[in-house]
Amino acid sequence: MKDTTSLSLGRETILSFMSKFVMAAIGFGGTIVFARVLGPDGLGVYKTAVAAAFVVAQIPAGTGTAIKKRISEVDVTPGNFLGVGLLFHGAFSVLVFIGYLSFRPIVDGYFASPALAAGAVAIIFALGLFEIANSAYSGLGYPAMSTWIDTLRSLFTLAFQLVFIWRGYGPLGLVVGFVLATAVSAGVSLLVAGVLPEIPGMRTVKRVYSFARWSVSNALLRVGYGRADILLINAFVGSGAVGFYSAASQLTMPRAMFGGSIQDSLAVKSSGLSSVGKDFRADMENAMSYVGPIALPIFFGALAIPT
User: What is the pTM of this model?
Assistant: First the structure.
């Protein structure tokens, strides 16, 4: 485990930015291929399943953020916090499955396919596991490397999806490819972290909960707002419109790449500094001084896209 109080924000941010750039390129290329092969309807049903799963998966993802916060503190036992995350995710997955069985006719009707509805549930399980594992690895002092594992997940996802598309599985193949790649990447995160989960005590659970009650609600609101457009479009207009909309919105991805790159590194380092009573405002001010100027050319570049 690294000393999180001495992380180099510049190095971590550059590495994270590079990984996010690669992820954006993979996502953009995949969208073009899938839109051409499956058409707007096929792409739309896949994007809807992923959007719905991402919103629900923010509950374990927000818990993962709390675990990252606690693990990044000085003089803690990472295995206890990883154990909290895995136990919580297991219980949460059971509740999601029970909820799906209870409202299956409604859920199947919304996704227009029982197989895609079940696939969305599988995405929730795989994505939640990945968020817990990768957040724990990031909290150990490797925020940039955790984003590269996310990039690896994107590569795995595209590779698996191309195979399933070639085999003729259509939109369901995209979902299955996403689930397999995410589950494999979760295993990679746990392997490189080198931390064995332990049975946590109540003090550990309370410490995670004290932060998770805010990080989970924040994640649900942030991602729910960001994915609400796709879910509403599918509900009122249909999957075809979602396909067109998703392809167009892919162009806006670069707007947040740099801010997202510095966010994780800053969170890990500031948590480590705060846990030993040190001030982190200098790093915050330094980060903000770079985000503003870099955002300006991205903004004006976006204005030039219609031309």
Answer: 0.79
